[in-house]
Amino acid sequence: MGKELLLIEQYFFPDGWTGAQYPINIAERMVSEGWKVKVICGNLPYVIDNFYKNDPRENGVIIEYVNLPVPQKNVFLKLINQIYFSLNCFLKIILNKKPNLIITLTNPPPIIIIVFLVKKIYKIPYIVIAMDLYPEVLLKNLSKKISIILKTLITPIFNIAYRSASRVVSLGKSMSTQLRSKGISKSKIVVIRNWGLGDFKTIKAPNKLSREWNISSEFNLIYSGNLGIAHEWETLLKALRLSKLRSEQLKILFISSGTRINQAKTFAKKFLPLNSVIFKPLVKIENLPLTMGLADMAIVTLRSTYDGLVSPSKLSGYLARGLPILFIGSDPELKEIIETNDAGAVFSPGDYESLTKYLISIQKNKSKLLRQGKNAMSYYENNLSKEKGLRKYAELINNFIDYL
């Protein structure tokens, strides 16, 4: 059996979005394991003006770009590109030399069905890396009526595609539970959590960014990354409002983009003191040591209806940098990681009163946060490091012949 691997992900090099970094890492690792790795990806980035500098082609990864037809300015145009990309991938596979194995991430969602069709026609095995679960995440973005109709039409097709994979990579226990509900056998599910990305050092404030952004409060909470439909901001900002803390006492920084960021901005402008919440765009990956250096504590949020459907990759990045976590959500696995390892604090969505009391008290107890930060880093190094994650991927892919 040969060792020709096709990896499919719409967002790849030079995209600087964190989600694009994982397939880059996996592709480079498998080249080092002796595989010939070809990647099919789109030519339009997920994050504009934030590009990854280390070209994986210099490490032997072959990249074939699909020229997407329309700019990705809204959801409808993105859907056009997703369908176009998926169909184009199908043509590229059938018109070229067939790989021994296909690995696909879940960007774009239709690609899962495409690789299923390829397997049915050409008997090429495939592995799905479930960064998010579809069509569930997709349906949550639609109106209730349309969602019910589409759920009936497309969910069975997606479930069959998942079940037909040789293996499905889950990002955690909660996601594995969701996958089992799709009828995927336990033996096919492999748990590999996402690792932290970028330089893990932190340049503590005062630093260049704290001076540029005029950050001088006693206590800073940082939310870094996408604030999308799966994420929750209401509990945090409403608790800040109830606390009546002044901006010089506590400040929340959203270094973020996403579909819900404007809602948070509107609430902050209307109800919160000036400069108590600061919104900044995503920074380049080389500036993460500066932004992380501003944080006394880092925020992870997840709306309860998304438990197991998405896994916040920012959690690993925070843990890797030794930042204590403020988690607002109900996902049992994330709660267990933080509480069992004393790596931060956990609050249920809507529990404004408890969070308000915590915000008032924690700014005066930084010694506790220092201890929790050390616990966070220790947990990461022992369980979630990049090397551990890539070793699991290498074992999975190198041994795939055993389960065909």
Structural class: alpha/beta
Average pLDDT figure: 92
CATH arch. level architecture of the largest domain: 3-Layer(aba) Sandwich
**Shape annotation:** globular
Strand content: 15-25%
| Count of separate DSSP helical elements | 15
Query: How many extended strands?
Result: 13
Largest sheet: 7 strands, parallel
CATH topology type of the largest domain = Rossmann fold
Share of residues in helices? 40-55%
Radius of gyration: 21 Å
Strand order of the biggest β-sheet:
3-2-1-4-5-6-7
How far the N terminus sits from the C terminus, by CA atoms, comes to: 12 Å
**Poorly predicted ranges (pLDDT <50, ≥5 residues)?**
none
Which CATH first-tier class of the largest domain would you pick?
Answer: Alpha Beta
Per CATH, the superfamily of the largest domain is: Glycogen Phosphorylase B
Q: What's the helix-strand series?
A: EHEEHEHEHHEHEHEHEHEHEHEHEHHH
Number of domains: 2
